[in-house]
## 1
Amino acid sequence: MALEDLTGVRERVRLRKDQQTSVHSWSFHQLGRYIAYKAERAGVPLVYIDPAYTSQQCSQCHHIDRRNRSSQSKFACRACGVTMHADDNASRNIARKGHAAWTAGRQSRVPEPA
């Protein structure tokens, strides 16, 4: 199982003032700890990956371009033309990065609390 390491996400995101309340109410750390706990109990390996470009990179050809995200929900690669839901594309990138991290021999870990 692979999750994005969202440490410091609140400081990195740029939002309109009316959206800031909803982001600051998310408990990324708590959710991550719960998933880590459940994965450990079930014997499922868990790695945290760098979230950089997971939503802008094409999961088919790996081309990165911020314009690949035509909207919040639509992904259309400028290089190969593949189209899909943006969350589906990002989840495939996270899975690929997680698999690469795991096969490289990295140990399962939980980020330190912020």
Note: The mean pLDDT is 83.
## 2
Amino acid sequence: MTLKLELKQVDLDTNLEQKDLDVLVDKMLNNIGSIDPELRDTLIFNTFGKLILEDFLTDKQLEHTLKVCLDKLFWGIKEMESDFVFTRSFSA
């Protein structure tokens, strides 16, 4: 199943398993700067919002997410024309 399909399913699912969330969160973090606007802007961004606001994530998962996002804030900062701007923006 592609990440897009997984994220579309999360929007409908209210019975998410923690072990599945660990894998899903890592996939989302690995694609947070995707050049695909639907994946990045709609699916990943909104799914993180749902998972955080509806208390699906544990403290450990939230800390992991924060650490990964902080690590990505300066990716490609010196590159003039790169897609890393999406990674930095959405990590912030």
Note: Helices lie at 3-12, 18-30, 37-53, 59-72, 84-91.
## 3
Amino acid sequence: MIGKLNHIAIVVPDLPAATALYRDTLGAAVSQPVDLAAHGVTVVFVNLPNTKIELLHPFGEASPVAGFLAKNPSGGIHHVCYEVDDILAARDRLKAEGARVLGDGEPKLGAHDKPVLFLHPKDFCGTLVELEQV
């Protein structure tokens, strides 16, 4: 059901420093920061030959990653994102298997302007999983 690994998201306490680390120290191509107010994050994408790294930083008071940073002040891996062909079919199959879809269960537009859903980490070996329709 799942396709390629789309990205690994890392929450960072200092977005400019993390961007510089990937760009200047590791030599990766990075995007400009993009504020995603609807998701409460600012993102920078690190483009790699086989996937992307999504650097996440809180945006606004109600940011969902602010709590993550409070518990992990140095930051860390937040989620992995897998591609799916049909997000509604994937959701329905996963729910039938007992997986919990976070939120109201309806896809929302993600950072790539494609439908996304998040799956409860307790159902996936302690890892928050994002599904993105391609």
Note: The radius of gyration is 15 Å.
